[in-house]
Amino acid sequence: xxxxxxxxxxxxxxxxxxxxxxxxxxxxxxxxxxxxxxxxxxxxxxxxxxxxxxxxxxxxxxxxxxxxxxxxxxxxxxxxxxxxxxxxxxxxxxxxxxxxxxxxxxxxxxxxxxxxxxxxxxxxxxxxxxxxxxxxxxxxxxxxxxxxxxxxxxxxxxxxxxxxxxxxxxxxxxxxxxxxxxxxxxxxxxxxxxxxxxxxxxxxxxxxxxxxxxxxxxxxxxxxxxxxxxxxxxxxxxxxxxxxxxxxxxxxxxxxxxxxxxxxxxxxxxxxxxxxxxxxxxxxxxxxxxxx
Amino acid sequence: xxxxxxxxxxxxxxxxxxxxxxxxxxxxxxxxxxxxxxxxxxxxxxxxxxxxxxxxxxxxxxxxxxxxxxxxxxxxxxxxxxxxxxxxxxxxxxxxxxxxxxxxxxxxxxxxxxxxxxxxxxxxxxxxxxxxxxxxxxxxxxxxxxxxxxxxxxxxxxxxxxxxxxxxxxxxxxxxxxxxxxxxxxxxxxxxxxxxxxxxxxxxxxxxxxxxxxxxxxxxxxxxxxxxxxxxxxxxxxxxxxxxxxxxxxxxxxxxxxxxxxxxxxxxxxxxxxxxxxxxxxxxxxxxxxxxxxxxxxxxxxxxxxxxxxxxxxxxxxxxxxxxxxxxxxxxxxxxxxxxxxxxxxxxxxxxxxxxxxxxxxxxxxxxxxxxxxxxxxxxxxxxxxxxxx
Lengths: 292, 390
Prior knowledge:
The complex is a heterodimer.
Chain A: H1 7-11, H2 41-47, E1 53-56, H3 66-70, E2 76-77, E3 87-88, H4 98-102, E4 108-112, E5 119-126, E6 137-141, E7 147-157, E8 166-173, E9 182-184, E10 206-208, E11 213-214, H5 215-222, H6 229-236, H7 249-260, H8 264-267, E12 279-280, H9 281-284
Antiparallel strand pairs in A: 1-4, 2-3, 4-5, 5-8, 6-7, 6-9, 7-8, 10-11
Chain B: E1 5-6, E2 9-12, H1 16-27, E3 32-36, E4 51-52, H2 61-79, E5 91-95, H3 98-113, E6 119-122, H4 123-126, E7 139-143, E8 147-148, H5 151-164, E9 168-171, E10 175-181, E11 184-190, E12 193-196, E13 200-202, H6 208-214, E14 222-233, E15 241-244, H7 245-252, H8 262-267, E16 272-275, E17 280-284, H9 298-311, E18 319-330, E19 337-341, E20 344-351, H10 357-374
Parallel strand pairs in B: 1-12, 2-3, 2-13, 3-9, 5-15, 13-20
Antiparallel strand pairs in B: 4-8, 5-7, 6-7, 10-11, 11-12, 14-17, 14-18, 15-16, 16-17, 19-20
Helix pairs in contact in B: 1-5, 1-10, 2-10
């Protein structure tokens, strides 16, 4: 539940990309550099000064080619090997945006630097419930879902033909232009997972449910040099709850043995004490323990 | 072992007495080594309730010791890095007959004149402190100075703090012999090697007799078994520690307060109840001399349960999840054995606390540190000398 935020994917408008795409938003190393794209990003960058062009950021070599079929100008080529990465020709592109709308991996965006003045227009897909409106402010996010900053929505269209997908054109400073992969209309509710209170870090888990003791606490106590399981129980309270360690002690004993280099026999088991299961005190006081 | 071990002071025993002695010695800057055959708190200190009870002490030197000890708890609670769950909650002792009430009243008077605040409560007045008591309860005495503490945390906390101050703690290290030459302790032979030391403190609890034999001294300490039931966790219901008058009877061997029932007398049954910080209620307890057998028995568990319902009927709805038994180091008169040994310089005894180990640990540690380092103590420990038995 704490991993709700596959933010890149969610923010960019699709819950999962079945096809080639931005790999859930993982940024390409050097993604901001002009020569980083599969297509010729440097050329696209130049051409975008004259017209809107599609920029492809696809890196999944899987059978997928909607971008190619969607392009009426033949500006995008996947070729015979349907698993190949698409290649675009910025000169042939007319900036219609269909490829942006159909890409299941949200790996295509439009770049338009005609306005100049250090600003650029970036068009990305948007499929969430809220209705983006031209003139409003929206947050531009990068491939990791991190917010780059706020930008103004210039245009919202359904150019792709798939009714659920809107194309949102956002005005952003030029230096972000190649980083923007999505827009977000609202504040996010969950901050970075590490900061969520009560979350004790990956890899930790409860080893004693009755006493709510997590593994790291036991390991910390064990680090103080206790020799036997009984001593570890006393010091950490692990296995001292309602179940009396029926569920947790044996696996813990084996793990301790492994870590301490001692045998399970050496670690012992403490002295198992009656009652083996919780018993009502009135029954115990009734004089007949066999009845319990 | 290639390494030659040595220490200014060697403490035999990693229970609450050994840990407290190490703590106070380290506070004075002594170099300390604690030798523990098993694990810290693996003996009586890890198998007892957390009573810091003053009203159960005998007026005189015993009570004086307890009063001094009780005063040290708040500062310990502050100083130790482990939460020892110290709770100055006060304690109630319940009487189930007019004879017992009379006896408690007389005791309260004696305790008061010895400087301990004790107040008698009628059955109606008890309501303020206790939820519903049994019909047989006639009243009780309330001592605001009584308290409770987590005995395991106390032991571990003292040991940990001592360690931080420089003490070495050897666990799983059994003492095999103590070398005495020219009437002075010279060396402690252990399974971890020989430790050169001119000062040795025996805080070995029920193992003290065996340690004493190594220097040819009879330390009359016998294991006395105490059994306790542990219930499931509950929201706080017990505001104070609670005991029954028979508990005092069996503890101090007061004929007027001994249990009348034959089996109860055989088991040394005396009612105790406390709610630990975890919410579990500890119900006790027994006093039996059965050698080194620390198992719990069905008879005792039944007897404790029956007895508990007599005093606090509402406990019948609680689930018992565990029982445990501890072997208390008991001297012939039930009082601690503190001090030096004639003819063996550098050997000190701190043992035989019976059921008072937790309560008396702080003052024992303090007095022993004084004795070891200065040769004299701030409180007269002559009444606790080994030679009172001869």
